[in-house]
Amino acid sequence: MTTTRPLAGLHVVECASFVAGPTGGLTLVQLGADVIRVDPIGGGSDHLRWPVAPGGESYYWASLNKGKRSVAVDMRSREGQELVLALATASGTGRGILIDNVVGRPWLAHERLAARRPDLIHVRVQGHPDGRPAVDYTVNAEAGVPSITGGEDHAGPVNHVLPAWDLIAGLSVATGVLAALQQRARTGEGAFVELALSDVALAGVANLGWLSEAADRGGERPRHGNHVYGSFGVDFACRGGSRVMVVALTEGQWRALQSATGTVEVFQALEKALRADLRDETERYRLRETIAAILRPWFAARDLDEVGKELDAARVLWGRYRGMADLVADHRAGAHRVLADLTLPRGGSAVTARSPLRFDGDHGPAGECAELGRDTEAVLAEVLGLTAAEIGGLHDRRVIGPPADPNTERKAR
Amino acid sequence: MTTTRPLAGLHVVECASFVAGPTGGLTLVQLGADVIRVDPIGGGSDHLRWPVAPGGESYYWASLNKGKRSVAVDMRSREGQELVLALATASGTGRGILIDNVVGRPWLAHERLAARRPDLIHVRVQGHPDGRPAVDYTVNAEAGVPSITGGEDHAGPVNHVLPAWDLIAGLSVATGVLAALQQRARTGEGAFVELALSDVALAGVANLGWLSEAADRGGERPRHGNHVYGSFGVDFACRGGSRVMVVALTEGQWRALQSATGTVEVFQALEKALRADLRDETERYRLRETIAAILRPWFAARDLDEVGKELDAARVLWGRYRGMADLVADHRAGAHRVLADLTLPRGGSAVTARSPLRFDGDHGPAGECAELGRDTEAVLAEVLGLTAAEIGGLHDRRVIGPPADPNTERKAR
């Protein structure tokens, strides 16, 4: 078993904002890469994104950018742009890796970067593939998901709240960087890898077969509330009001559910009466309302503890609806190894996560959250070999930030 | 620019089902790896998963497993298990990579595999980290998302229909494989990488800051329908009924929205009257209903074409709500390079996707869909060096499938 993390030795520059690009960098940093995040002085437009701590710091920014080194640069200035270009294309085997979501800025055009380091790996997140902007909320609307979400009798779209396409794009960024490294190791060549959020969404719905089905139907499939599409799965209320999600995708799961709820004979009789074979998930889907209605009293007659015990004993596939506050309480009780506490730069603490990927049993560290620009001087000295005098000059010209307080400034020179 | 795909030379064995594991393999195969998918003879429990084509083939299975080579093996037999172990641990630089979601089966325990090939890369998808089963629908309930999804006055959970955690897990699998390869190239060591779907969901909500916020509130944040949380974004109906999603996360986007809708002075006056500063997204979130009410008549007075033209001219961030059937029509008109047509093994066609990652402008091929077990003989001959006689024996003993028809069978021997 290695004691270092899998991506030790890699150095990635991240010049991105909001969820997708930063999730890519977070994924890599949690696997052991050194990720240098470059922000405008004072922070980008995601720096105070909700949710925020009582003191005003963004839980969102802190969690998505923990573990990274923070460099703050005035990217509107020519000197600041030159610093970003130099960091992204610095020489070294594990260097020359850039993640950005900067579209339509000539100073960070891929050609300019590749001219400085031809084997650069450059992964760029876009809204649409033609460069038009888009965010999770707009591409989700365009991908058709809100029109099949929500209750059967709901009119109008139901947006998801989870920025799912952003998160999928973030993991795709990590995959793209690592695939390009594989290629660079084999051929010596770099790669310009573009990833449009809208393509991530289109690929998602296409790969699930949803577009093919709409083509057959010539329209949208019906909404089905909390039912699982094409099989049996739905939520039930227990005595006392707690709710559970119960799923029977396979024949074994369906047998388990009947057995736990004592309904084997009921469904046998029903199958006979309706000439249906409920071992077939298509039939379970067709008769989902009937099945749910038959099962509902069993759940209503038991509290959550009883339901859980009996379902587990019969190996039913189920989950309890939890609130986020419940998850925090579980975490405080030590329940989830993937979760961790994070100290915010100005004090206060957040609940954050380690990598869900356990390498040889180890989630790795969650990472610390840097105050914006904390590592600017150290990174410029280490990666670009700038002298203290040169760094002082950049400070004086306000090319790098944050404006150091006089004491720190004196020490740094 | 290379002419081969980035992951050329890698050989991955996939022994997984449903969405997460297969999405991992799909991601790798679309980037150029050779992925050998192993299924039970006749198909696993995901083989006929909805949606299905009129002829009964699964659009879902075909799309998630295209591009892969298909091997069908009776994994209940000792001989079949031995074939899977041998394929997963075959020697060669680009081999020794296994993706599975097989939990609690001693024959495929990691230790057994690692004993045969110590530098094996083995990525295993689980439900819960302790091995208890879970699927997207149950972990989503457990992660608290359904309780903050849907309309303000909705009671009870609103499940998402997108298996978002599965897709994120799938990309995490691809990332895990490639990170382990990076480590193997550096240290010569293999890795056992476990990934629990429930951890993927917990990490997702934690990294967005949602758990921290629930800890502060001591409970759940309110549902907010189609509004974007913590900023301004909501859907509007245009004249004729088409709907659009409009978002103003940044100050620039907010200025653009006011400018497009001719409401600059209205909001100036409102800010004065309410002593609010709507340049601050927190304030826009607080006053979201008021802002939406002021903007609504502008949308209602214009049809979609007019709305789109005027929003684009002012550079507003927006998207149109589309149906999946609309996306298919766009695809037929050549609109989306990421989408592709897929021929089903028994005829008929599906709409599927290429990789959203464009390496040097290229999405790569979508991949063909193999009939179940098509490549069994070729793979056993190529990877394990089995002779035609040995393969014939496996057929006779029904260890491999599908039962070849007599003509093919004669030729194969």
UniProtKB/TrEMBL annotation, chains A, B:
- One GO MF term, please? isomerase activity
Q: Which residues form the signal peptide?
A: none
Superkingdom: Bacteria
Q: Which UniProt keywords apply?
A: Isomerase
Keyword flag Glycoprotein: no
Task: Please give one Pfam family short name.
Answer: CoA_transf_3
What protein does this entry describe? 2-methylfumaryl-CoA isomerase
